[in-house]
Amino acid sequence: MSTVLEVNDLLTRFHTLDGVVHAVNGVSFDLKQGETLGIVGESGSGKSVTMMSLLGLIPMPPGRIEGGEALFTTDDETHDLLQMSPADLRDVRGGKIGFVFQDPISTLNPILTVGEQIAEVLTRHLDLSKQEAQARAIKLLASVGIPDPELRYDAYPFQFSGGMRQRVVIAIAIACTPDIVIADEPTTALDVTVQAQIADLFRQLRRELGVAIIWITHDLGVVAGLADRVLVMYGGRVAEIAMVDDLYENPQHPYTIGLLGALPSLESRESKRLISIRGAPPDLLIPLEHCPFAWRCDYAFDRCWEEIPHLLSVGKRHRTACFYDLEKGGPRDV
Amino acid sequence: MASRETTPKRGADSLLDVERTFWDRLAYLGRLFGRDRSGLMGAVLFLIVVVAALFAPLIAPYEPLEQNLRDAKLPPAWAEGGSRAHLFGTDNLGRDIFSRILYGTRVSLTVGFFGVLIASSLGLVFGAIAGYIGGRVDSTIMGIVNLILSLPYLLFVVVIAAILGRSLLNVILIFGITDAPIFARTTRGEVLRIRNSGYVESAVSAGARWGRIVFDHIIPNLIGPLITLGTFEMSRMIFYEAGLGFLGLSVPPSVPSWGNMLSAGRQYLTSSPWIATFPGLAIVFTSLGMNLLGDWLRDVLDPRMRRAR
Fold it and tell me: Which of A121, A186, B37, B237 is the most exposed, having the fewest neighbouring CB atoms within 10 Å of its CB?
């Protein structure tokens, strides 16, 4: 399958009054057509900033993208998103790449009907007339599982529940049949049952539209059932990237192991305490010259304090940024 | 897995299916007022003032400029020596005070309405530019705004009035320009708030251009707060217009305005107090009505407040 997005060495910094925040430090990954990539990591690990950087959505100033490339392939043409003019990038946003935000309550304008808000994207990107846009918006409402779409078209966001609103936001994101939908913690603000419904909806969309999905979350449980591949971020870097089963069964980075250990399980009979990762995430104001996880790592040795580990291949489509070989019980030979 | 649930039956159980007629909406407005008596009172007072202004020639028993020196300084109808022909009595030139107050309403409302129109338009444009573009443009505009706001208001107005001369248009322009900073400041604050809202972020992420964001998302969300502010500012302008009239800096003395009437009545305050009292009461009446209405609008136009009430 062809690659729709290839990000290499993305570098995003924020030049604030406190100093330079090293938010994203050389992130690389790729995304295949129709693939679902889960991006996990704790708050401040750079998950959202990575995605916003790609689409030119970070506030500049203070933000600045200081390096890297983001090759986006659509209609057999490849462009670097980071080099695009703001006008071209606006055509990509909402047209070729849809975005779903965390909080569906604030994402919809309270004084426009949900139909108008979907039609707005359609007329903007697809050159449809008002009637065509309305007809298509109603179909979209139906396709995201909203009953009575003709009636709901004229409803205002306050007449919708949180889950329904998120469905509307998803309808907006897929309105122009994009190649990629970026979902930034789309279920975090919702009830658990509604979370499951939204995850189902995403599965259905992937099946029906063949759209690639980037699912940003800090919930490893949701990702397990949804993603094809998972990328673990830590301190603005990629810690590990692997196929989902591989990652859960055979994690290679101590941080991933820590995250999985902190996951409550329904299977375990005896009640045991959740294991937390000791320490706190690194202060991104300080430029690091060693592994950002070294402070908190049980396996850290000399080399971890001397250089920054880069991604190493440790299996089929499985890469990790760690000097320690867990299987061998000692340093890797690289 | 079973197929998706069938769509719910259309009928009374669907909130969205309810047709809202004009009368339903009117009834809703009625309930909204019914919850807040002071708002209702404000609306009634304001409505009386508007009707008085619109239909002054039909209601007024006399021409406002018609003099009759034989009937000068007649007390109000209910006082000793009053005449039923002159409800609020007559002034020093024998002009009917009731008729003059009715016509004065026109001056006050014209000044208030057009003053607010100019001030809010200027304030909306400059406040929106400052809030939306930000940076140096913002600091320049807000610098000018703060400069104007830091000048002693009345002194400023008096100087401009003295330079421009006395006419209705000049009074409107003075209020329109000197009050614009207040609208600019409010607009800027609201624009900043809306700009950082989720729906603007989402519109940007959906590729919306700036025109769409400003006209579809920002300005419609600004209207509520600006209407509220406009009501309060209109009341303030009516107040200040009367003040200027009292100082002899508003419309020419021949025009029946409340300020001019106050000014003229001042000399007879001890002998014929009603000449100054009634225009004063008219100002209180209007100002009270508009402030109550403004309070009510502020609550109603902000949905968070509506739920709390």
Answer: B37
Query: For A292-322, how does the pLDDT look when each residue is reduced to its tens digit (9 = 90+)?
Result: 888 888 888 888 888 888 888 888 888 888 8
Residue B5 placed within a domain? no
Amino acid letter at B45? L
Single out the residue of A307, A304, A299 nearest to residue A325, CA to CA.
Answer: A299
Q: Which residues of A touch B304 (CB under 8 A)?
A: none
Number of domains into which chain B is organized:
1
Whether the pLDDT of residue B14 is over 60: the answer is no
* Chain B residue numbers touching A106 (CB-CB < 8 A): 197-199
Q: Is the pLDDT of residue B139 over 70?
A: yes
Indicate the DSSP class of residue A93: B
Note every long-range contact of A294-299, with CB atoms under 8 Å and residues 24 or more positions apart, other chains counting: A296/A255, A296/A258, A297/A254, A297/A255, A297/A324, A298/A254, A299/A254, A299/A324, A299/A326
Nearest CA to B238 out of B252, B259, B255 is that of: B259
CB contact under 8 A, A172 and B206: yes
Q: Is the residue at B242 inside a domain?
A: yes
For residue B30, being part of any structural domain is answered with no
Q: Determine the structural domain holding residue B205 and report its residue range.
A: 35-308
Question: Does A148 contact chain B (CB < 8 Å)?
Answer: yes
Contacts of B199 (CB under 8 A, 6+ apart): A106, A107, A108, A109, A110, B217
The verdict on a CB contact (< 8 Å) between A147 and B202 is no
- The reply to whether B29 falls in a domain is no
Name the token pair of A142. Answer: 């139906």
Q: B205, A99: Cβ pair inside 8 Å?
A: yes
Establish if A90 touches chain B: CB-CB under 8 angstroms: yes
User: What confidence score (pLDDT) does residue B303 get?
Assistant: 56
Start-end of CATH 3.40.50.300 domains in chain A = 3-96+176-265+272-331
The packing angle between helices B219-246 and B168-195, to 10°, is: 150
**Sequential DSSP letters for A158-207:** GGS-HHHHHHHHHHHHHTT--SEEEEESTTTTS-HHHHHHHHHHHHHHHH
DSSP code at position A76? T
Share of chain A above pLDDT 90, in %: 10
Find out if CATH 1.10.10.10 is the number for domain A3-96+176-265+272-331.
no
